[in-house]
Amino acid sequence: QGTIVVQVRVAPIGEEYILLLADDRTEITRTEAMRNDFVANVSHELKTPVGAISLLAEAIDDAADDAEAVRRFAGRMHKEARRLGALVQDIIELSRLQGADVVQGGTEVDLNAVVAEAVDRNKLTAESRHIELSVGGNIGVPVYGDAELLTTALRNLIDNAIRYAPERSKVGVGLRVREGLATVSVTDQGPGITPDQQDRIFERFYRLDDARSRQTGGTGLGLSIVKHVISQHGGEVSVWSQPGQGSTFTVRLPEMEQEDGGATESVE
Ligand code: ADP
């Protein structure tokens, strides 16, 4: 993408050369197309709850004499407003992340503390679904970055695990250092994700099951926020999953360079 491949055959020797030309124009057009796409998607996504709120306001107006109906419509209106709020928050977060290097003013970050905070922020949702949320392992080395952004990323992964898994199931968060990378994995016993969908779920607004995602309060932006945060930190996020066997999302981040240059292994 953004590259033109030209094949040149030099006769009569018959040797083949591949010429790669990076075409900046194509790159710019692509970025523009992505931006237009994003704006179109955002408008569409925002219109849904706004439209619903407007219809519900009318319904409340019409049912003014029926207290029970008013209460019901008001409840639904509240839910749509919450969804709208979550969408706006995610959109702002994502556009901030797509801008300049947000991790410029980073500091030494303890991932154990980040995970503890992310788990804490998901405790109530886990309790409401009777999900056993546990943390195991330890990361004995710091990473470099923005603790708040990393907390948001891990909170999103744990939040998904809790929302998509069945009630009374288990969600486990594992911490370790492997091959010089600080590794956090989030495992659930949910429906799983097919191989062809595993790449696509990190795209903005992509949902496997639209109805389910909307119902569980999803915005379709969570994983793309995770991907941006982690790549801004020089790391990567991947998924292992099989339909019917749950999913494991893994985040790998480079250890922060130590003064003495030595990398440390974690104590598990
Ligand atoms: P959403 O807000 O819809 O959850 P995400 O970007 O976080 O958006 O996730 C994209 C889609 O990937 C979801 O709609 C869901 O279909 C799928 N997905 C994400 N996490 C999981 C999971 N742990 N188990 C099963 N499906 C998942």
* Major sheet strand order: 4-6-7-9-8
Q: Count the helices. How many? A: 7
Share of β-strand residues: 15-25%
**What does the oligomeric state look like here?**
single chain
The biggest sheet, with number of strands, parallel, antiparallel or mixed sense and barrel status, is: 5 strands, mixed
Low-confidence stretches: 261-268
Order of helices and strands: EEHHEHEEHEEHHHEE
- Share in helix: 40-55%
Ligands and ions found: adenosine-5'-diphosphate
Structural class call reads: alpha+beta
Beta-strand segment tally: 9
Intertermini distance: 43 Å
Shape: globular
Structure description:
By secondary structure, this protein is α+β, with helices and mostly antiparallel strands. Helices cover 47% and strands 22% of the residues. It contains seven helices and nine strands. The protein has a five-stranded mixed sheet with strand order 4-6-7-9-8, covered by helices on one side. Strands 1-2 form a two-stranded antiparallel sheet. It has a two-stranded antiparallel sheet with strand order 3-5. Helix 3 runs parallel beside helix 4 (147-164) and helix 4 runs antiparallel to helix 7 (222-232). It is globular and about 70 Å long. The relative contact order is 0.12. Bound molecules: adenosine-5'-diphosphate. Residues 160-161, 164, 188, 190-191, 193, 201, 206-209, 213, 218-224, 247 line the site of adenosine-5'-diphosphate.
Strands, helices and their partners?
Elements (H helix, E strand, L loop, with lengths): L2 E8 L4 E8 L1 H39 L4 H31 L9 E3 L1 H18 L3 E6 L5 E3 L1 H18 L5 E9 L2 E8 L6 H4 L11 H6 L6 H11 L3 E6 L5 E8 L14
Parallel strand pairs: 4-6
Antiparallel strand pairs: 1-2, 3-5, 6-7, 7-9, 8-9
Helix pairs in contact: 1-2, 2-7, 3-4, 4-7
The structure holds adenosine-5'-diphosphate (ADP).
Adenosine-5'-diphosphate binds next to helix 4 and helix 7.
